[in-house]
Records
---
Amino acid sequence: MARLDSLEKCHRSVAHSSSGQGHRPLKAEITGSNPVCATTNLFLIFNSLTALESVRLLSCTVQFVYNHPTSLIGVRHQRKDIMEQSSSANPNRAMIIIAHPDDGEYMAAGTLSKWAKAGTEVTYVLCTSGDKGTSDPNVKPTDLAAIREVEQQNAANVVGAKNVVFLRYLDGSLQNTLELRKDLVKQIRKYQPDIVFCQDPTRRYSDWYINHPDHRAAGDAALDAIFPSARDYHVYPDLIDEGYMPHNALEVYMGTISEGANAWVDITDTIDTKIAALFEHKTQVGDDPVRLEEIKQRLKDGAAKTGSNQDMRYAESFRYIKIS
């Protein structure tokens, strides 16, 4: 929160400058750890002016200067191990928002299990239950969804997650709708994560890969829910009535390939947990020992390549955003 003495100083500066004539610059300087709070407090200052002061203020130019506290200066954008270098180095709560069961295990199970072992409360939010994830015409989507929810719960247990939420949108037709955004806002406000993981909506295709449209929709909806909807009090008044108060999650980790990454997590100690969690998705990986060994080796080779330039034996990479 902005400091009271700075707030009072700013109020005096606004009131004094607004009493003059003509167009003149007005500089308001606030120090605090959160620019959103600082901006809100500045608004409250303006709102407290008398009617005459407000009219006079219209002829002024307001220059707003927000000063970050020195404790946040020098935070690195190119990070190696988030656990060691993030401002939320050992987060109390982390949430992962994904389109389908098994997306989270491929993207971040090594990181999530590492954090869970360190005491982080991990929450999974599944937009769909993967009801289209089979080529078998004899399997009903409703039956498959029920099976995959059990598989996801089992995988989350391996990771060490505390909560698993299924929103149950239809697989294959997920869209970034206002309804989905509201559902995600509700979960963010309920579990109040310090950090949110999501899929990268800008990752559309590569030379060898076309990203699933559900992945892009889930990533878009997650980012829109994180900012500004989960933060803003008046966006969903009915959620306020239900007791879901605004929450500001200021760190986001989007799953991405190394070329687009700016943060890496050393998962050498949890690579086997990641693989074990993925193998709980039996409808997707099967039970053939040869195939499972191939998947295991492919995951290890990929994690080794990701960590090779970061002095890590195995790593997961992310596109990191710190909202300020």
---
Amino acid sequence: MKPSLPSTNTPRAGKACMTHAGLPAAATGRAAGEFSYEAFGLRFASEIEVPELSPGDGASPSHVSVGYGSVPESLPGAYRFGARFQARPGELLFRIPGVAAYWVREGKRIVIDREPSAPEDDVRVFLLSSALAALIHQRGLLPVHASAVDGNGEAILFTGTSGQGKSTIAAQLSRARGLSLMCDDMSVLSLDGKGGPVLHPAFPQLKLWRDALDHLGDNPRDYPALRRNLEKHSVMTPERFGTRPLPVKHIVDLGFNNTGAVTLTPLGGAGKIDLLINRTYRKRYLLGLGGRKNHFRVCAAAASGITATALSRPWGWHAVEEALDLLTRRCLQ
């Protein structure tokens, strides 16, 4: 649900906006000099240039401002997790040393207080991940830690903890099997009029480690690093990106084993609900933001409309092709 609280501070007027179909509009308009983008079914009018996002039409009114400004030192009464994050209903504040502080408010506004020496790439990394995740939670949508592809008009999601190969599997299916990429790292779901899960396209970027690029036959030097001193690279894929919302057909939870075999194990009703709950992107935000009842409701409704399996494979690249063949036979027919 979209909370509404009095603000703790008044930031400098933001310059960017988003909206989502089905949510109440509080249009702020669009000022000259702003960039227009789209992602997750939302419209951005951004003071900040974000080349990772898909261009928007620039004509429609916007609902969430994103821009530079001042942020509060703290949120009174907030739930704190770790040294960097604090949240209360309607607001989340976090600070990344050497980069910026991000203040996300009521599903409508993101204000960024950037460190003077912070590279723009670093600022955008946290805008497009942690800050957007907070915004998605505030709007009552479900962000899943997953990559996704278009499997013949229905979305297939690949979930898992970090390092399980979500981006690599999506990249392989896109390149070798011709499927359109829908999302990488964070996939956003809503419920349609009948309660079925719908995936909203993110933006045409894959985030791949150096060894994944080597395996795909690419030169990592051809792609910029996401951050300084990080061997993870930004791979833009606009020519292989799906741009329309799709019903969610299947979720595959990725993992590794030491048995030497590639296996697919179906998940039942409770297992599907647990999967969506446990794979919720930045789930801990809900401890401060609230909305846990709505989160469970959306997870339960989405689980009832999908099939789900756990895919387990040996470590090493030799098992990737076998896993892709098994996925193609079981999930893409």
---
Amino acid sequence: MSIIICKVCKKEVESTGRNQKYCPSCSKIIVSELKTICRVSNREKYNYDNMITRRKKNEHKRYMECPMCGITIKKRSNVQKYCKKCGKKVKIDSSRDNYKSDFKIGEKFNCVICNKLIKRRAAQHKYCNKCKPIVERFRVSHYEALKKNAGGTYTIEDFHNLCDSLNWQCAYCGKQITEDTATRDHVMPVSRGGNNSIDNILPACFSCNASKNNKTKEEYLIYKEEKCKQVN
């Protein structure tokens, strides 16, 4: 242990570290003085008094009442309308379609065609087991008739060449497809005046073809973007 002379009181003290310049009593005083200087400079810099008065004025704006449950909560942002629990409920309700929120699974309802009383297995359940295949057959036959009237033909080879040009990927989502999973989608739907030629056909996966329904390519891409925004 080496002996040093304090720069303030000029006393001889034993050093406890390499860069020691003051004795313990003087170092305490210097630290306290430095703290007060820092506080004063910070107060002048950030103007704490004005900040406190502003906070007191805007304190009522920082809290809000949830319109659903009536609980007073602290605002997280200016856009916030509900508390955390109610916000989740509102999100779920808005993401569902109107027909899904109206119908409950397990309740009894009448079949649309034969009026038979049956139990609901899903929100979109409309027909009994006897009437469902009849409706599907009618839908297929109606679509085939539309295709015949639309005009234009193509072969399987033409379709395979089209798939080769797109590297056997879905035209809408880019998913890899095979001969078994590839479906033929009309860019301009047949129900809206589109023809059945190879120029009006694109290879698509089953999910994209089903969700596209009777939309055009542009309409479907806009619909897909909006759906992605709702999910995020």
---
Amino acid sequence: MWPATLRVRTTLVLSPRMVSVKARSAFFVFVNRFGQPQHQATLNKAIRRIIRNCNDKQFLESENPEVLLPHFSCHSLRHTFTTRMCEAGVNVKVIQDALGHKDVSTTLNIYTDVTKELRKSEFEGLELQFNQ
């Protein structure tokens, strides 16, 4: 179990679609066959295996191979989740609470990235405001 998991106590409001996941996993996205939280090292090992298999196939089948799947860890998924919530317009205080951060600056400065798509859509919205 991750140390942060022990510190974070938060209440999540789940959509009906997510309720079945909650019931099975007690809010953990990755659980083992016993329903317990999967250990971070085990997840990272599985991710490395998936990356290796994906890229090996590409390198075997192509004369000019490209890396299809770059290296990442399970912690990268936390950053991606946070960025996607920001892109969806979720209130930053809700995101802060979901991640268990004491300070919203941690959420904004470390866990959110501005994607090209978000930057473009935000400036398009700003342009619309100026043209009114």
